Amino acid sequence: MFKKTSSRFVSVMTAVMLMAVMVVSGCGAKNDGPTNAASESPSQSAVETASPEPTPSASASPESNKLVVYAALNEDDIIQLSKKFKEDTGIEIEYLRLGNAGEASTRILAEKANPQADIFVGGSVEFYEPLGKEGILENYVSPNAKDLDAQFNDPNGFWQGWYMGVLGIVLNTERFEKELAPKGVKEPTTWDDLLDANYKDLFITSNPATAGGGYIFVADQLFRLGEDKGWDYLKKLNENVHHYTKAAGDGINLTATGEFVIGMSWAHDIVKSAKQGYPIKVIIPKQTAFEIGGVGIVKGGGNTENAKKFVDWLLTKPVGEMNTQMSNRYSVRKDVAPPEGMIKIEDVDLVAYDRTKAAEMKPATVEKFTQLPAK
Q: Which GO molecular-function terms appear in the entry (predicted)?
């Protein structure tokens, strides 16, 4: 009798203990993860609803604090922009500086299936247009774009203009005075002056297939002279060209160090190098062309919201002034003064440059250019 009673007692106690363990386990699971509202008791629901600050779900992803940028800008420019952007927004920029806009756009196109960048910045918008048509760039119109002239805003929303650059001639004054002035050669004032045979192998410019400046220079000649005369000019100039560089800025460096007497590049970069003490000067010829420097959001990047913040930030007046001071580029904002050492943009003799046509004719133009004798 005693053994049977004891055995029943043990069985009952075991069952009670098992139930207790299940209850405890159930409470632990409830605290560790999201709960199905239908299983909550009325008292539990009332307590959670009354909470003034609901606790975020454990599965909610934290807000991104970084931005991956492919930059077709000078190294010191992207460094300063990155530093300032972090100061203003707290967002860290991880950048890869590409040598030119062509290289950057080619890389972004190659990564279409698996985008690695959030932002493409720098270089002429002609390099952004094809990416937009390929569906590689995000459609985004910044609220700050309303303050700008329409020419700086892509009507399709794939790119945004934020600075302007004017094509110019870079002249090494020391070599010119020593080697060419004694021959009676005058400093050039027009693009046609570059056809002077005295410049043979002393002139350097950039490749239109890889450099935004190189392509705009070629298009400039076609627009100012017409198709046939434009190509005649480019063929004659090719005889004076020593070689074509990958990036527009390369010609400045090679002329500044005295390897060449004269070159073609962006006026703002020429002025920047001249301020560093190199024996060079900038000449802005008649009927020159200008670039609209672009920025675009890469579709499918991991930090799209931060990319939008970056575009908005670039279009503000303080950043426009900062960029003008550090790079000598013109701002697209009318309330930002022209860079020191540069004439007002309205005083520059600009060619009638059809940007839409320039973008459309780029593949055929580059192909025809490659048929010129190699340099």
A: thiamine binding; thiamine pyrophosphate binding
pTM for the complete prediction?
0.71
Q: Check: CATH 3.40.190.10 for 66-165+291-342?
A: yes
pLDDT at 342: 85
Distance CA 33, CA 263 (A): 67
Taking residue 32's Cβ as centre, other Cβ atoms within 10 Å add up to 9
Run of H or E residues at 59: none
Would you give the end-to-end CA distance of the chain in angstroms? 112
CA 234 to chain centre: 29
d(CA 30, CA 27): 5
Take residue 1 and report the two structure tokens written for it.
Answer: 């009798």
Other beta carbons less than 10 A from residue 130's beta carbon: 17
The rounded distance, in Å, linking the Cα atoms of 224 and 238 is: 18
Euclidean distance between CA atoms 144 and 151, whole angstroms: 14
Per-residue pLDDT of 125-149, as tens digits, reads 988 989 999 999 999 999 999 989 9
pLDDT higher at 249 or 6:
249
Please list the residue range(s) of the chain that carry CATH number 3.40.190.10.
66-165+291-342, 166-288
CA–CA distance, 213 with 73 (Å, rounded to integer)? 13
Collect all residues with Cβ–Cβ distance below 8 Å to 196 and sequence separation of at least 6: 185, 188, 240
pLDDT at 219 over 90: yes
Tell me which residue of 17, 44, 20, 19 sits closest to 30, measured CA to CA.
44
User: Is pLDDT at 26 greater than 50 in this prediction?
Assistant: no
55: which 2 tokens? Answer: 């606790």
One-letter amino acid identity for 366? V
Q: Which two tokens stand for residue 63?
A: 């807000």
CA distance 233 to 237: 6
Residue type, 352: A
Query: Which three-class secondary structure state does DSSP give residue 190?
Result: coil
Q: What percent of the chain has pLDDT over 70?
A: 83
CA distance 267 to 165: 7
Classify 166-288 by CATH class.
Answer: alpha beta
